[in-house]
Design goal:
Number of domains: 1
Strand content: 15-25%
Oligomer: single chain
Number of helices: 6
Helix content: 25-40%
Order of helices and strands: EHEHEHEHEEEHEEH
């Protein structure tokens, strides 16, 4: 089933660009397959093995999505897609390089958080939605929801903090389905112990 699909439909119809933030929660592969028909554009980290890369791309793009590599060419193509009104999907809880993020609370812990979403929102003013595909007793449910409104703030820290709060709200709906093994805190603030060592 799908909850909140009207949010996506209305955002696309508005024509100002749609940014759907899909964290490491539930089955984001199924989410991508289901909404490929909308022409979603997404960044991905290509596997080093060319044959595996072909397999990954073929499967993820088979319903109409477009995958772009995480490089300068991919970023340019993503910006072009956003400007043209195509829906763009990002994993907002990926850990950036220190130069591309700010420390903001994530479940009350300082987490290096990407500022890329903030820059996109400030520059292009797309509609932002949160998305997830959660396992239920009867199968899967895809959910779209509004983010914390402060995600649209001009101040970067305010915006990324709101993004983290929006991710937290989704995770609280199904905490067992969050990919906790993904090392979200792997780049701690300077002088802070690495929680993954020891």
């Amino acid at each position: 089933s799908i909850e909140g699909q009207s949010l996506l439909d209305d955002a696309i119809e508005a024509g100002r660009g749609v940014l759907v933030l899909v964290p490491h929660l539930g089955n984001w592969e199924l989410f991508a397959l289901r909404f490929g028909e909308y022409g979603f554009v997404a960044l991905y980290d290509p596997p080093r093995d060319p044959e595996l890369d072909t397999l990954v791309r073929t499967n993820r793009e088979r319903t109409g999505a477009t995958l772009l590599p995480i490089d300068s060419r991919g970023f340019r193509s993503l910006l072009s897609a956003l400007r043209s009104g195509r829906p763009v999907s990002l994993l907002p809880d990926q850990v950036p390089e220190r130069s591309a993020g700010l420390y903001a609370p994530f479940f009350s812990q300082p987490a290096l958080t990407m500022t890329f979403v903030h820059r996109l929102v400030r520059r292009w003013r797309p509609r932002v939605l949160m998305g997830a595909c959660l396992r239920t007793h009867g199968g899967f449910e895809i959910r779209f929801s509004e983010p914390d409104p402060d995600i649209y703030a001009d101040d970067a820290y305010t915006s990324v903090t709101a993004m983290n709060r929006s991710i937290e709200a989704l995770v609280r709906e199904a905490p067992a389905q969050y990919q906790w093994e993904y090392k979200r805190f792997k780049r701690p603030p300077p002088g802070t112990p690495d929680r993954y060592r020891g």
